[in-house]
Amino acid sequence: MATQLNAIRSLLPASEVFEQGQAKYREQSEPWSKYAELNPKLVIQPTTLDGMQKAVRFLYDSDLDFAVRNTGTGSVSARDVILSTHGFKSFSFDKAAETVTIGAGLCWGEVDKLMEEGAWGHEFGMISDPQNLLDAQVVLRDGRVVWAAKDEPDLMWALRGGGGNFGIVTALKLRARSYPDKIFGGVLALPYSALQATAKGVSAMSKRTADPKVAMHVVNLGPGMGMPDQGAKPGIGIMMFDARGEEHARSQDGFAWAFGLEGAQEVSTSTCTLREMHAVAETFRDYQGSNMFWLCAPLIEGDLDEGMLVRAWKWYEDCVEAHPGFGAGSTVLLEFMQEVGLRVGLEVEWRLMRCRMLLIPRHHAHRRAGRIRDIGENELTRINGTPANPDGRHVMQLVLGCKPETAPPNVKDIVMHRLQAAGKEIAGSRETGEYHAGFLHEWNDVKEVYGENYERLRELKTRYDPSNRFNRGVDLVRGKVSEGMTV
């Protein structure tokens, strides 16, 4: 073991190797959730393709326990080595072609700062959709570098949502579009007493004629929003987004219904750029490395009824009553996205999901329940065996967590019990039994999550990772989820 650790050290400059006791070790090694911390002996962060190729090739054939760390919000750790992609900070914007190629080490906030002339808005669909994610540079197990869309189309198909670890992505080529530079938005705070009225307003807005330039998050107020713990019955925060400007936002076509709710207070509203708007969610970064927490995302079918938000808040209330410490590290967040925006470019897609319960801010291109698209021009796409759903689809992304010092010995058992109950308690008869592939747990049925795509993904996994060394998170070979890795 020591010989192999010394060998991996020798492959890279000292500036790309972080060891226990060094000043930057904690910053480079800590997962989002403290529960997943394994205190690796080394963190290596190559900054060149040559270095990454050498590292991947060596680690794959070694006996070392290793994991790959990207810039997303998942938690990953290892006992021996973390291989970080944070060193890949390249950026190239082709305004004429409307494309941008970004290194895998950039987080979305960094991309926003580099790119003021083009943008991604929710109205253009998900970042992983074929019209948005054009290609991916991948270092394969043997050190070869490929651009997947061009060289390995099957691999590109899997990367769009497989979540099963096929190689190391070092760069992404994305579609970029011009976008209004004056967006009105911010946070409107409401007391808990306004929950029923807010639920009715959100339901009504979800059923109105869709405007792709209008969106919102509805979140419980508390530490995730940079506020104190509000206990089992927190207030409500509406994070507004209106690319048509302030006048529209305050009109009946925008958020007049919300401004008119009793007790509504404008905590921070202004006209700003898309970059500044995205930064509103940066408060969630305070969770990283400070809390033990777990995420879960059951899928729900049907329109957003007037009781959905109320049931979500009741679920949260029951969680905090089960362990009061959850108030310091838990969030329920409803992300409202217009149907038209999710259908753009592909009029037929399952992406008629008007609303998604979402915790994670815009730090990563996320996977939707293993629904990989194999899309041809004008083709009605079936995702996971389910045809495009005209009734819409909702994803609840829920987080339960607490400070390590307040956690009872059975904290994980409590969390798993509450997360497993979430689908039924919030969705009722519309619970699907399906889950977002980014936040699975040991009790999830991986075959059910991936549906008809499961066997094809397993075949591709065997082709690109025959020894199953890229096995953190969803382990397609064993058909299970690695414990503690997708928190």
Q: What's the short story on this structure?
A:
The protein is of the alpha+beta class.
3D structure, described in words:
With about 475 residues, the chain is an alpha+beta fold. It has 3 domains: about 1-85, 2-Layer Sandwich (Uridine Diphospho-n-acetylenolpyruvylglucosamine Reductase, domain 2); about 90-180 and about 445-480, 2-Layer Sandwich (Uridine Diphospho-n-acetylenolpyruvylglucosamine Reductase, domain 3), CATH 3.30.465.10; about 185-370 and about 385-440, Vanillyl-alcohol Oxidase, Chain A, domain 3 (3-Layer(aba) Sandwich). It has 15 helices and 22 strands. The protein has helices spanning about 1-10, 25-30, 50-60, 110-115, 150, 155-160, 195-205, 245-250, 255-260, 275-280, 310-320, 340-345, 410-425, 445-450, 455-465, and strands at about 15-20, 40-45, 65-70, 80-85, 90-95, 100-105, 135-140, 145, 170-175, 185-190, 215-220, 235-240, 265-270, 290-295, 300, 330-335, 355, 395, 400, 430-435, 475, 480. Strands 10, 11, 12, 13, 14, 15, 16, 17, 18, 19 and 20 form an 11-stranded mixed sheet that branches. A hairpin with a 4-residue loop joins strand 21 (about 475) and strand 22. The protein is globular, with a radius of gyration of 22 Å. The two termini are about 30 Å apart. The model is unreliable at about 340-390 (pLDDT under 50).
Q: What fold name stands as the CATH topology of the largest domain? A: Vanillyl-alcohol Oxidase, Chain A, domain 3
CATH top level of the largest domain is Alpha Beta
The biggest sheet amounts to: 11 strands, mixed
Number of discrete helical segments: 15
Structural class: alpha+beta
Name the average pLDDT.
83
User: What's the helical proportion of residues?
Assistant: 25-40%
Low-confidence stretches: 340-392
